[in-house]
Amino acid sequence: MKQDLSLPSKLQILLRQHEKTAKRSLGQNYLIDKNTLLKIVNEIIPKEHQAGAKQSEIPIPIVVEIGSGLGVLSAELLQHNIKLFCIEIEQRSISIFLDGLDEHEKKLQVKSVKEFLDTQGPAFFILQKDVFDCNFNQLLGKERLIFCGNLPYSLSARLSLHLLEHHHSHIRHMVFLMQKEVALRIAALSSHAGIEETSCLGLGSLKKKQISTISYLCAWFAKIETCFPVSANCFYPKPRVESLVLRFSLDEEKALYAKSHHKNIYQLFKYFVQGSFQHRRKNFLNSIKHSMASLKHGPRGLARKQGEISQEISIQQVQNCLHELGLTENIRAEEISMQGFFKLCQCYRQSAALKKQEDI
Question: Which domains occur in the chain, in start order?
Answer without folding.
Answer: 8-257 (3.40.50.150), 260-359 (1.10.8.100)
